[in-house]
Each structure stands twice: as structure tokens, then as C-alpha cells.
Amino acid sequence: MIFEEIEELLNNATSKAGYDEKLSVTFSNMPKMCDFQCNDCFSLAKKYGKNPFEIAEDIVSKIENTQDFVFEVARPAFINIKLTDKKLSDIGNDYLKDPRGGLAMHTTQQKVLLDYGGANVAKSLHVGHLRPAIIGESLKRLYRLLGDQVISDVHLGDWGLQMGLTELELFEEGKLDYYFGKSKTPYHITIEDLNYAYPRASIRKNQEEDFRKKAETWTYKIQNKEEPYYSIFKELRELSVSEIKKNYASLGAEFDLWYGESDASDYIPEVLKIIKDKGLARESEGALVVDVAREGENIPLPKKEGEVQRYSNPMPPCIIEKSNGAALYATTDIATIYMRNKMFNNLGRIEYVTDARQHLHFTQVFRVSKLAEISPEEQQLLHIGHGTMNGRDGKPFKTRSGETIKLEDIIEMLVEKAGEKLKSNGLEFDRDLALKIGVAAMKFGDLINNVDKDYVFDLDKFMAFEGKTGPYLQYTAVRINSILNKVKDLSQGEFIVDNDEEREIIRCILKLNSSYEICYKNKTLSPLCLATYNLASAFSSFYNNYNVINEQDKKKQASYVSLLNLVKNKLAQALNVLAIEVPEKM
Ligand code: ARG
Q1: How far is the CA of 443 from the centre of ligand 1 (A)?
Q2: Do 437 and 493 belong together in one domain?
Q3: Which atom belonging to ligand 1 lies closest to the Cα atom of 333?
Q4: Deepest of 20, 68, 109, 153, by most Cβ within 10 A of its Cβ?
Q5: Bridge partners of residue 419, in order along the sequence
């Protein structure tokens, strides 16, 4: 909104000066000199064959009188714009009254299906599930804040070999006897049974050929809904889901839908028929494939005798059906798009947050869905691929013995580390509090990086109470709350900008507000993290220089209280998107 205000003044003057171009402004590159700048006089000069500095001066001289902004020309030909104290104060008072704190809502809003999480039934959630949960949850909240209607779906991986493996293992342990009429009393399968069965079966699969083959047959029976295999599957799935929900809850991730691959599988025959009827499929080595390559892809590279053919820009065909009838990851995802469009009309976007290494898979799935018109033309399908979380050695984070780390164990590490911090700050250990701080540390440590970048899991750095960390933001919010509690009986009064620290706070709020849109466009939370940190740090400077509680000038004090409330609201709004909770104390 502030941009529009400035641009309107500027463009009225531009047309008075005889140009019909529209100029635009950006935040200033030199915040010490001005708040906003316009760089467009250079291109105007080129177009009209005039001197850029003179054009800038001409435009500025024609700007209407305003008490809100100061326009100045700077060499070579920038127009610098400063906000007056009156304007900064007005912004503060207006944003305080507005429940959104000046954050605009999109004028066109979309219905979005956001697929993130990707937990697999029977397998434990592991470190690889951390980033999609953190990023997906925040994107969901961001989209909603800006007006989109978002449906989140965890899209359980529940239709693969792991189901057959787990059932077979449980069967061999005698835990499924009841289902097969070998025992009269049902055995109550527990989560511990599951946690034991899958890892063991997965080792056995690699060592015992026989076991693997049998597990494949079991999987096939489950997928054909044969009894009792299918009923057992449903029971295991339910058990597993309750465990998965607990883990996601510790991370603050909530899903509207708990559908899985198995739900989409009902649509596979229909989807295959559509693809075949459209003549998109061809046979290749016993499988059915769809060619999805476009111009410029699959360009054969020169090859020597006896070498395999290689391609630049490879885009292999998408395999949609195999001769053994097993469900394929790609086909299941295509069927899921089909199902989602049947369930919800007018889905503007379907977005997926997964590891960047699944990019080829999604490209193929999206192309088949578009070719087969399973996804309507105007629907946007998007894969948001994230980088990996690495250990200090720069390789994907693993245990010392090289195993994948369970999500539960990471959560415990966070709690422990946060607990140590609390103790060193003289507070008693409290699990809930430690969890809130630990999770905030993890989330901010993740989200401050661009989504597609890898980063190093450095708990000491993430957990610091100072600097660009989650706990620092929590600490700032806690501090504001505690001051506001102490001055409870004081009413807030008109906010009147009075010092540089306050000016900086309002500027930070303007930047914070505009960071939401940048995040929305670029599918990342990093700009929001930085802007939130900058606001917190601007507040700290204010706090270090002014004593709100002991301020004798009552008018001033009332203005401080207003400012505190505004900062509190803006921090809360941002932390809510980052899914970081503010503790009672710290
Ligand atoms: N379950 C998958 C995994 O663990 C992720 C699923 C992502 N979503 C999707 N629609 N394929 O890798």
C-alpha cells in the first residue's frame, strides 16, 4: 500500500512533466539516506533522448505538496524518498488498529491442495521427513494468511512393498495367527511390534531371496484387497497413523486430509484407461510407458562402440504399468491428481513439498497428467523441491554408525539441548517449554535457508538466544509480553515517532509486510525469517535505550505502549506463519 501511495504521487508528477510511462519504487539500497528509491529516470532518459538527472529534477519539482514524504534527486539520477515522522507515526497508528497490521490480502484467491509430509506407514518418520513438514506447514500458513483456501494432505505412503514386508514378518513371528484361523484369541499388535517388524523385514529382504519374493506376493494380495491381508493392512495403517500424528504434532504440523496412496489406487484402472484411450501409452520392454520428453530434451550424445547411449537433458518416458501389476509411484501420483480433482472443484494449484531429488518423478507425473487432461489446463502443478539437511561433514545427516536418524530421536535431541539452555539461564527444566524452544530453533534454522539449498544441522548455532535464531525471536516476544504485563493498567496512547530506534521499527514493519509477498512468489520462507529477525533486533535496540516502565512523561509512555503492542502483533503474525510458538517464559 505504501508503494502505491508513493507511486501515485510520482506518476502524477511524471505525467505532468509530459511522460506517459509509469515509474515504480523499491526499498532503498541505502537505508541511511532514504527509505525508498526510484531508478526509472535512466530508462526514461534513454527513451526520450534527454539527460536523466534533468528528468528526475523535473519530475520531483512537479510532485504535489505532501506531509508524508520527502522527494529528492540524487546523482546520477535517482529519486530518493524519505518518510516523514508524521507518516511514520500514522503508519504505526493505522497498523495498530488494523487486525492484519497493514498486511494486504490478495485480491484473487485460489484453492490450493498442498501435499507435504509424505510419511510412510509402518516405517518410522525419519530425518528426511523433517524438512517437508516444516516447509509445508509454513507455506500452508503463508498462503492462508494471504487469502488462499488451502487443503493440506499428508499423502501417506501406504501402498508399497513395506506393507507386504511388515505383514509377512509379523506373520512369521506368529502375531497374525488369529487372522489365519490358527488361534482363537486375537493378538493385539502394538506400535512396538511395528517398529520392530519393519526394520527387521527390511534387512531380511536383502538377505533372504525367498522372504523378499514372498513379501512381494503379500503386497500384491494387499493391493488386490484380498482377505485377511487387506484387513490386517487397514489395522496396521491405523496404528501407524496414530503414531505419525503424534510426531507431526510435536512439530506443529497439522493436516486436513490423511489420505494415502491406497485411496488413490482405486482410481488407477480408470486413469490407465484414460491414458490408453487417448493413445498416449506405448509398450516398452513389457511395461507400458508414456513419452513425456519435449523439444530440446533427450538429445543423443555421441557414443563409442559398445557404450550405452547417453543423452543430454534426459527425460525418460514415464512408466505407468508393469507386467507384474504392482502399483507404481508415478501412476499412483497421477491417480491422486485425478482423485483430488474429483473431490474438489476449481483447484487452482496442486503443490508438492518433497526432496529435490524427486524432481524428475514429478515432472513426469505432471506432464502425463496434462497430456491426458487429468489435470485441467489452467491448473498449476508445482513441485517445491527442498535441499538436504546435512551433518557437519557436509553429507546428509546420519547417526554415527551411518544409519538414518528417526524423527523422534531428533525431537529428543532438541528437547535435551533446549533443556540445557534453560538450565544455564537459571530456569527449571520443563519438557513442554524445552520442546517449544527446541522446535523453534530447528524450524528457524531450517526456514532461514532458501528451500532449495542444503544446510548444516548445527544445533548449537540454532539454539543460541542471540542472533538469527528461533529462540531469539521467542525471547523477544516473551520480553515484550512481560513489559506489557507490567504496564497493564496503562492505556496505550497515540503513537508519535520520537527517535531513530522507533523510526527503524516502523521501517522494519514495512519490510516485514512486503516480505510475505516475496515468500509467496518464490516459495520460500527465508525473506520472512530475515525480516522478522530485523524487526526483533530493531526492537532490542529500542528496548536497550528506552525505559518504558519508568518513563515519567505519560504521553511518551503511552506512545511506547502502543509501539510495543504493534511489535507484539507483527511478531505474532510472523511467528504464526513460521509455526513457532511463543512460550510463557524463557
Ligand atoms: N512417501 C514419499 C516419501 O517418503 C513422499 C510422498 C510425497 N508426495 C507425493 N505425492 N508423492 O518419499
Answers
A1: 21
A2: yes
A3: 10
A4: 153
A5: none
Per-residue exposure over 76-109, b if at least 16 CB sit within 10 Å of its own CB, e if not: ebbbbbbbeeebbbbbbbebbeeeebbbeeeeee
Q: 181 and 325, same structural domain?
A: no
> Which CATH number belongs to the domain containing residue 16 in this structure?
3.30.1360.70
Q: Check: CB of residue 333 under 8 Å from CB of residue 365.
A: yes
**Phi and psi at residue 579, in whole multiples of 5°?**
55, 40
Residues 493 and 380 in one domain: no
Q: Is 367 in the pocket of ligand 1 (CB under 6 A)?
A: no
Examine residue 70 and state whether it is found in any structural domain, yes or no. Answer: yes
**Runs of H (alpha helix) within 448-499:** 459-463, 470-486
Query: Domain total for the chain?
Result: 4
Return the ligand 1 atom nearest residue 354 CA.
7
Is 106 domain-assigned? no
Full domain range(s) for residue 354: 262-386
Q: What is the pTM of this model?
A: 0.95
- Is any atom of ligand 1 closer than 6 Å to the C-beta of 352? yes
Residue 235 CA to ligand 1 center (angstroms) comes to: 21
pLDDT tens column, 324-334 = 777 799 999 99
